Amino acid sequence: MARLRTTKRSKSSSGRVWNAFAGLTPEFAELITTFTRMPRVTYGGRGFGARALRVDGRIFAMLDTKGRFVVKVPRARADELLTRGQAVPFEPVPGRPMREWLVVTGRRPSWSTLAREAYEYVGSL
Prior knowledge:
Helix content is 26%, strand content 19%. It has helices at residues 26-35, 75-83, 111-124, and strands at residues 41-43, 52-55, 58-63, 69-72, 87-89, 101-104. The radius of gyration is 14 Å and the shape is globular.
């Protein structure tokens, strides 16, 4: 099994080692396993990106504080997913949507497909 690459390794206040998969959905845990095998990809961090997949340090997919799957995709793709009702704009602060960031609300397209699109998009920036 490939070793999980994370941005930080830390201990909790109780002294226990941080578990990268704690509190994750099985679908997102699978994405972590898949994507951290790829070059330039890490998982984790602090604050906003605590449950985020990153390429070259930039977030491309994550679970937000509500456990929702969030991706960053090109504007045209974001508009398409919004029009089809498969996503809603990601607003970390109510009333302030982040451009190109979406909360996936449907089962289609798959999380894996969207994460791959996001990885390729953010990796090319």
